[in-house]
Amino acid sequence: MNRIVLLRIASGVLLAAAMIRPLQAQGQASPTDLSGEWRRLTNHEDAHERGPGPDPGEYWGLPLNDAERMRADAYNGEILSTNLYFQCRPHPTGYQQLGPDQMRIEKEIDTVNRQLIAYRVLFQRTPGDRMIWLDGRERPSEHAAHSWEGFSLGRWDGDTLTITTTHLKESFIRRNGVQGSFRRTVTEHVSLDEPYLTWVLIVNDPDYLTEPLIRSVTFQRAPNAQIPVYPCAPQQEEYRPEDAGSYRVPHYLPGTNPYLTEVAFKYKTPLVGVRGGAESMYPEFVAKIAGEKPPAQQFTLQPVYNDESTRIAERIANQPVPAPTYDRIDALHVKGNIFMISGAGANIALSAGGDGVLMVDAGAAQASEKILGTVKDLTRLPKPLALSNSASPYADAWQAAHTQAPPVIRMIIDTSAGPEHVGGNGNIAGSSIFHPIGVEGGDQAASEVILSYENVQQTMLAAKVPVRAQPTNTYFSDRYRLHRYFNNEGVEVQHMANAISDGDSVVWFRGSDVIATGDIFNSDIYPPIDIDHGGSIQGLISALEKLADLCFPEYMGQGGTLVVPGHGWISDGSEVGYYRDMMIVVRDRIQDMIDKKMTLAQVQAAKPTMDYDPLFGRVPGSTAKFVEAVYRSLTEGAAGKKEK
Amino acid sequence: MSSLVSSFCPRFQAFLRGATNVALPLAALALSSIAIPTSLHAQGRGRGPAGPPPTAKAAAPFDPSGYWTSIITEDWHVRMLVAPKGDFGSGPDAEGLPFGGGGSIPYNAEGKKLALAWDPAKDEAEGNQCKAYGAGGIMRLPGHLHITWQDDYTLKMEIDNGTQTRLFRFRRPAPSGQAATAPEPAGAASGQGDSVAEWIILGGRGDWTRGGNLKVVTTNLKPGYYWKNGMVYSAKLTLTEHFRYQKEPNGDEWLNFSQMAEDPQYLTEPWIVTYHYKKLPDGSKWNPSPCTAR
User: Residue B156 pLDDT > 80, yes or no?
Assistant: First the structure.
């Protein structure tokens, strides 16, 4: 070997050493390279479930509780034809890898230091790109938006990438109506044994599972694979002409699903095995079902639900209600000009920009000081977000984009008369940073100071709320538009008749594409329908239908129009759609009981919301009140008390 | 080219000789700086004076010993029950259904034909009740594992369902200066075959924690069944398993492992599935039972 060749080799080795050592020294990056194209090993495991799909009532091997069982028993797959948010809904994290899609994993590189900061995982039916962050960032606030893919943090341990995912939307964990709650977390362990990638999925669901659910799937490298586009376009499909033009939720009332025993008959399996539960995962279960015979024919099952999950509402009803402390106030950017303050009573939506701050609801009175502090903090941001949208008082776009928002609050819009929503009206309007649009210090009627639907003012007058905390401006029609742009966008207030009460408003920020809903939509509690003040289940369902229709999803049933709920986290149209569907299911169940001449006490004892209670019934007493409100809505008049 | 350069430029030739003399030792040093820590990590030891390599037991990146229970959430009806003849995973009457009607196992025509010829009475008559309890099938059955170190180089996995034992043999160190020796074959083919084990270890630098998996390759198997309903494998089956340990924040300890079955006689492609076992606090669930053909 001549010397030049030797020198080249030596130089190459030195260069390689120089390059490799710093990478090693930087530790946690990507010890194993997972990037590339992957094909799932089709149907090597659970071919039936992962291919054509599971049968109705097939719960074997699932550690589900009775609430989950009841939820799945009620499921009718026809919902996929009527709920437009479901038609393009992708498989969620925790299930996605089990589907038939091929997968692509890309590296997300920090452009400055060239280190791997995330893996971007794509499937054909993934709405966006699922990010698995490896850069040690923090998990977002509990009030941040949920998504089908959730928020994932990854970490390498030896030869395994462990991923933990939170912020998931409610979605299925088996494609026959077995739901995963929005509180579930998913842990994944990903290991590469070239050319095979093993992906272990563990779903932890405090609401619907009694133990973690573990499953797995294997992928194989497929360098030449391409992920095709997936232009899913939802369309209302009705098979019955009489249903055209109206929204309905196909579901089975308890004890009426004729298909729950089909799987036991088809697979010649004892029914006790088909119904699942944690014990069905363990070897000891074999002895339990050894003496059981499969059903001789398919029949309509009359299930009994009675485990601990069915008693959540009673258990919580007996717990003391802690006094609110308002010590965890959280401000999050929603979209465009809009922020959300949570933890101060009901959620507050804020428009912050060059024109100042507009508040939708003022929170609880006791939280006003902290709310004002949070508003000041937001206006001290180096640059109000999306201030290209900010027009006045700065004439040109540059100033608008580079000038802090004035630390002033211009207006409050009340969505209802509830103390958690309007309790802070007086404190906020009386604060030193409140400078309304219009004639300050003059006749308040000449300014838009506190705006609400007329009946909210009437309710507050009747409750003898101090005058300074009452609405100064009211509207009577089905909508009210601010007379001018605020932070360079139109603000439209829509009245939702006879929903939570007789005075509900939602506020639509048309440029930012955000809707503040008040209590008409809550991401994790039942609606506090106030029958005595004009609320009704029928009005609420109509309001939710309007809201769901108003929302425009970004892609595959999520994102796009964002929603600031009365309580809970930043949401979108799909969550409004789920909430609407739940209201319809509960209404139908209670109507069926009323038709059978059941009294309110009998209806409450029958627990018609048992399957939803783990999700929404965690406020003491709220379940009983909700059931009563629905019952009274349906027995005291078609649309509750008429609005004045 | 070098001869061309040197013939025209003797000074450059001298420079080249000097540069090479310096660069080669530097390159060797650089190579050793990359390679030595990696091999040490692979041995499970830090930097220190040279000594005998650690035993397989000492080098283990996780401790697999203890009692474990199978958790069956997939292929449930063919694992928890004895599925009817001809049920390839999608039910007994699923043939021809799209998307999986053909079942889970990528059989060729010969494999499928034999699977359809399952006769448990014949197996019983011939004393072959344990055909579904060989290494190719037993990990799929509901049951418990009891894993212990038989010695520093042999991991013993006892299985109560069918009362079977698998032995995972690691290479033993040879006298100094000689290569490690491969485990001796056990002789004739058997239900559990011969399993050669090794640790695959990564990490141990910076905040990348040390860890890895136990790779086990099993051959020399007697023909048997993947599932009790006569899903056959041949004597040519090679099993490759990767066992991994995970501890979850809730305290659960898992032994998750993939199992790749390569059978050129009956399969059209490698068949890969993954199994999950959860750690038990003690042996109270241990329940040895005999093989059954049905």
Answer: yes
Residue in chain B closest to A196 (alpha carbons) equals B272
Query: Which chain A residue shows the shortest CA-CA distance from B276?
Result: A214
Per-residue pLDDT, A234? 82
Q: Mean pLDDT over residues A576-598, rounded?
A: 97
Bridge partners of A507, per DSSP, are: A493, A516
Note the pLDDT of residue A497.
Answer: 96
A 10 A CB-CB count for B103 gives: 26
Residues in chain A closer than 8 A to B91 (CB atoms): 48, 266-267
Q: Nearest by CB to A47, from B90, B202, B213: name it.
A: B90
Q: Does B206 touch chain A (CB under 8 A)?
A: yes
Nearest CA-CA distance, residue B175 and chain A, Å: 30
B69 reaches A (C-beta below 8 A): yes
| Residues of B with Cβ-Cβ distance to A285 under 8 angstroms | 80, 142
How much is the pLDDT for A49? 85
The 3 state secondary structure assigned to chain B is: CHHHHHHHCHHHHHHHHHHHHHHHHHHHHHHHHHHHHHHHHHCCCCCCCCCCCCCHHHHCCCCCCEEEEECCCCCHHHHCCCCCCCCCCCCCCCCCCCCCCCCCCCECHHHHHHHCCCCHHHHHHCCCCCHHHCCCCHHHCCCEEEEEEEECCEEEEEECECCEEEEEEECECCCCCCCCECCCCCCCCECCCEEEEEEEEECCECCEECEEEEEEEEECECCEECCCCCCEECCCCEEEEEEEEEECCCCCEEEEEEEEEECCCCECCCEEEEEEEEEECCCCCCCCECCCCC
Angle between helices A622-635 and A573-595 (to 10 degrees): 60
Are B273 and A61 a contacting pair at CB < 8 A? Answer: no
Q: Is the pLDDT of residue B25 over 70?
A: no
CB contact under 8 A, A157 and B209: yes
Which chain B positions have a beta carbon within 8 Å of A60's beta carbon?
76-77, 80
Q: Rounded to an integer, what distance in angstroms lies between the CA atom of residue A450 and that of residue A417?
A: 12
Quote the CA–CA distance of A312 and A522 in Å, as a whole number: 19
B42 touches chain A (CB under 8 A): no
pLDDT at residue number A293: 92
State the smallest CA–CA distance between residue A81 and chain B in angstroms: 22
DSSP helix/strand/coil, A317: helix
Q: Which residues, at least 6 apart from A189, have a Cβ–Cβ distance to it below 8 Å?
A: A160, A161, A162, A163, A198, A199, A200, A202, B244, B246, B256
Each as own residue / partner, the long-range contacts of residues A12-18 (CB below 8 Å, 24 or more positions apart, any chain) are A13/B27, A13/B30, A13/B31, A14/B23, A14/B26, A14/B27, A14/B30, A16/B30, A16/B34, A17/B27, A17/B30, A17/B31, A17/B33, A17/B34, A18/B30
Q: Would you call A19 helix, strand, or coil by DSSP?
A: helix
Q: What does pTM read for this prediction?
A: 0.89
* Separation between Cα atoms, residue B140 and residue A101, nearest integer Å: 26
Give chain B positions within 8 Å (CB) of A273. 76-77, 80-81
Q: What is the DSSP string of A605-621?
A: HH-TTTTTHHHH--STT
Asked if the model's pLDDT at residue A89 lies above 90, the reply is no
What are A341-345's contacts with CB under 8 Å, separation 24+?
A341/A371, A341/A374, A341/A375, A342/A143, A342/A569, A343/A143, A343/A367, A344/A370, A344/A371, A344/A374, A344/A424, A345/A419, A345/A420, A345/A421, A345/A423, A345/A424
| Phi (first) and psi of residue A578, to 5 degrees | -60, -45
Average per-residue pLDDT for chain A: 88
Using the beta-carbon criterion (under 8 Å), do A45 and B274 form an inter-chain contact?
Answer: yes
> Is A47 in contact with B89 (Cβ distance < 8 A)?
yes
